Amino acid sequence: MKEQKAHPTFSSRIGFILVTAGAAVGLGNVWGFTYVAGKNGGGGFVLVYLLTLVLIAAPVFMAELLLGRMGRASTPSGLKKLQVRAGSRLPWALPAWVGLVASVFVLSFYSVIAGQVVAYGFEALKGGFAGWTSAQVIALDADFKSSPLQPLFWSALFIFLAGAVVSLDVRSGLERTGKWLMPILLLMLVGLVGFAALKADFSAGFDFLFGFHDITLSTHILMEAVGQAFFTLSIGIGGIMLLGSYMGDNVHLPKASAWIILMDVSVALLAGLAIFPLLFSANMDPAVGPGLVFVTLPLVFADMTGGAVLAFVFFLLLAFAAFTSAISLLATPVARMEEGGISRKKAAVFLGAVSFILSIATTLSFSSWSNYYPLAFLGLHGMTFFDLIREGVNNIILPLGGLAFALMVGWGLKREDVRAALPIKNRALFTIWYAVLRYLVPVAITALFVTAIIGE
Ligand code: PHE
Question: How do residues 377-397 score in pLDDT, each as one tens digit?
Fold first, then answer.
């Protein structure tokens, strides 16, 4: 057997927190959260989302980190070790393998959206948007999507840069990038919110996000809330587990989790507080869907003095957020390949290439394949490749993966082992978290799936 290199760890607590927050904070917080909240009517949805985040997603996040730190290896091998330790005959590594494949799929659509973000950043840098007519803004989005080469160029560039970071060792690649980009991102975001508070209809935006509006709770809304909560914390496909495996033993897992989750939620809410006031002061409709940041928002920038600067800061922020998540998506399968003796560089090139090829399907979903529904024969009418990948991962793979991780920690491992590995001194807090993993998470996720299946 060849000698195994020691599994790396991050050099500091703050490094771990910033990198993991960087993985969590991404397109999901800004592009995803604002369009899903906008589409579902704001306040009521936000409340449901926050509740699922705190009650279900946050405990699972801690469970996934813990599995990573206890396994200290790539995700399938780490889980395999823990399976042996738990004396279980179930295939623990399976959800990790599914997660590795899912990571590449997520990166494939992520890079397309992020690619458009980067392209828009350049447009703003050239002075774009300021003074544009609405026809121009709409045409920019439409032209961009309909010429497959342009989006493919930007998504290739994005994947290439992510690959370059991931091919470095963990400390000089992931850790250094997160340490720089996250603080800059937070600063830019606070600046944008300040701008919205001074110059836009802040109270309308605030009321839309936090005011209670009637909502009818449908299974679909609940699924979207759970899917969004899992997606935003990056849980269910092993990305968090891998970062957990790099977490030093001196890091207090529950406290660090609290910081990371707080940052993630704050970024989503602050993004809402920056974007919705701008939309309302320009009388725009928040319920437009995924085009919110690419059409509606640029329309607002077009009408404002200093719009180009604002647009540049906004798209740069979004690009940074997407980038720190993309490197975590790529790092998870890369770690597994590295364990198999392949260099990080080769693994990053290979996985980047696969993900780029898949991204062609997403790109075409916005143009010539926009009416092509590959799984229509299964009854999934009206869903393009992009919809299938995004909703399939968000609404099915992430919750099921999260469920598997909760069951492993709640039922598979020994209670004393879990408690010692956390470690958590406060008995009551531990008991609540543990009970949530054992009962609430499984019941809630199963109930959701059953109603979704019966309800269709
Ligand atoms: N959490 C990231 C976001 O909100 C997306 C992501 C999901 C990243 C899963 C890694 C793994 O955009």
Answer: 888 888 999 989 988 998 899
